[in-house]
Amino acid sequence: MAENKRAASMEATRAKLIKAARAAFADKGYAGASMDDLTAQAGLTRGALYHNFGDKRGLLAAVVNQIDEEMAHRAHTIAQGAGHDWECLVAEGAAYIEMALDPEIQRIVLLDGPAVLGDPSQWPSQNNCLAVTRTAIEGLIDKGLLKPVDAEASARLLSSAAFNAALWIAASDEREVLLPKAIAAFRALASGLLAEPEARSRDRR
Q: How much is the pTM?
């Protein structure tokens, strides 16, 4: 019982710190967010931050992981209404790209995230997304809807294309102009994985 209470208390502390950091990073950016300010906002001490996340960078990683997982869930939900399996897969990537218009996502995940945490392909949240995409591609290959290329390579290329398109948009001053161009290019690239036209026709029936 005591161990359960301790675990619940630690989880509550982590949640408070992540919530405060998420607000601070979105408002001031990673560099501008003071550890003292965000711990004070959470009603906690620097010691709590160090104990739970190691340092400010570790806290950013936790915030990025939370937001990135929310993005993946949102994109998946949006894609469910796209139609057949192939369109769901492409719509999920397009939805992820479109989230680059969200100011919080722009600043934390797409600008500060790679600058501070390094290669996004190594983030746990991105690896989770990659596994889901790979499974979807394997299913489409088994159905004969996609060319029999390596599913892991295909998943990595599709995921990278979507993420880099989002990075491009987030870093631009013309985001609304770039968005439709990025999505159109992403769809064109993804369509190269499709099998022969008759396979596409079967999927639409």
A: 0.85
pLDDT per position as a tens digit, 144-157: 999 999 999 999 99
Residue 188: enclosing H or E segment and its boundaries?
Answer: helix 175-191
Rg (alpha carbons) of the chain, rounded to whole number = 20
The one-letter code for the residue type at 164 is: N
Residue 45 backbone zone (phi > 0: left; psi -120 to 50: alpha; other: beta): beta
Q: Which amino acid would we find at residue 37?
A: D
Label residue 49 exposed, middle or buried (CB < 10 Å: 0-12, 13-18, 19+). buried
Supply the pLDDT for residue 84.
78
Place of tokens 């029999």: 148
Residue entry with tokens 């502390």: 13
How confident is the model over 33-38, as a mean pLDDT? Answer: 86
Nearest of 72, 122, 120 to residue 92 by alpha carbon:
72
